[in-house]
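Researcher: I'd like a candidate sequence for this fold, 330 residues long. If you have to choose between options at a position, lean toward the conservative one.
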């Protein structure tokens, strides 16, 4: 028999056998691969944020960048479906819809926040989405982060604050700040949907991304009005956002099938750090405070990855529902 959790089905009364290892060797290997994917995701997401800034400087609005990004993403994922049959395998349409709409709204609000406040402050506020994801997963999925994961997330978040805020970020609740905060809430809801889609229904990463692209186009079109820029640089930057975000999203979505929301949240704190480092390559200054923040962020990720999974048993309904997830190739 199965009991229904708020987001999916879990075996009713399921308990690990006494003496059985908490995590099998196969799952440890899968987790290592998932962490590698999240590292690559942060790398590409960081570059994407820089390209968003360049597109905005070329006169492209947030809605227009969203439309270009997701139009490219839709074309790319349709090509994957054509080249690799079986990668389009939808299930749990409610969660696919929530992933698409919530994720698209989060991206649009984040791009709008960049236009209202500094890019650093907008990214700092948006990068709080992993914290919201952890809170949502506690109440809706029953995932309980260990003390180690909680400490690691706090350390990594402090590092992000130092990197992007320089220790001097001002939090006055103006329109731009509010947009950044709300984008983080929607982002947390979106990645929680990803976790359930990948872990319980084992929906392939390209199918989840397909839902995201449709949501992005639906949300972006109403906000893309007004004259489009004629600058080739703006168009190239927007297309670059589409390419980098495509690889980043597929890597992130694939990884969520193997890691809890809490551990994935720690790894995703590398994204704003990566964005800062990409800015450094483009000539931005690296301060001693930012350097300390980078070290704290990396330390939080390492600490959480090494110690965060050492628990006696998997307790979340999501983990009990599918103890072993076969890897999916995007």
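Model: Candidate sequence:
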């Amino acid at each position: 028999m199965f009991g229904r959790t708020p987001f999916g089905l879990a075996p009713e009364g399921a308990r690990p056998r006494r003496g059985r290892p908490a995590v099998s060797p196969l799952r440890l290997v899968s987790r290592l691969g998932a962490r590698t994917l999240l590292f690559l995701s942060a790398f590409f997401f960081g570059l994407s944020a820089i390209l968003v800034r360049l597109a905005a400087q070329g006169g492209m609005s947030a809605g227009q960048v969203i439309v270009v990004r997701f139009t490219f993403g839709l074309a790319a994922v349709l090509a994957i479906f054509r080249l690799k049959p079986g990668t389009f395998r939808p299930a749990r349409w409610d969660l696919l819809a929530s992933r698409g709409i919530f994720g698209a709204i989060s991206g649009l609000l984040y791009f709008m926040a960049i236009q209202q406040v500094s890019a650093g402050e907008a990214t700092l506020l948006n990068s709080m989405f992993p914290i919201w994801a952890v809170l949502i997963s506690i109440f809706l999925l029953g995932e309980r982060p260990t003390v180690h994961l909680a400490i690691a997330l706090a350390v990594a978040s402090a590092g992000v604050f130092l990197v992007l805020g320089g220790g001097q970020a001002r939090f006055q609740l103006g329109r731009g700040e509010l947009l950044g905060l709300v984008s983080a809430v929607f982002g947390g809801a979106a990645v929680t949907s990803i976790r359930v889609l990948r872990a319980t229904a084992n929906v392939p990463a390209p199918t989840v991304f397909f839902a995201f692209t449709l949501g992005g186009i639906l949300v972006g079109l109403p906000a893309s009005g007004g004259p489009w820029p004629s600058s080739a640089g703006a168009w190239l930057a927007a297309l670059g956002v589409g390419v980098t975000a495509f690889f980043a999203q597929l890597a992130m979505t694939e990884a969520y099938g193997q890691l809890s929301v809490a551990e994935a949240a720690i790894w995703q704190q590398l994204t704003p750090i990566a964005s800062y480092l990409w800015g450094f390559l483009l000539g931005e200054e690296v301060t001693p405070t930012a350097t300390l923040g980078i070290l704290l962020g990396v330390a939080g990720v390492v600490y959480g990855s090494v110690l965060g999974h050492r628990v006696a048993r998997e307790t979340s309904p999501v983990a009990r529902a599918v103890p072993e997830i076969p890897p999916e190739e995007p």
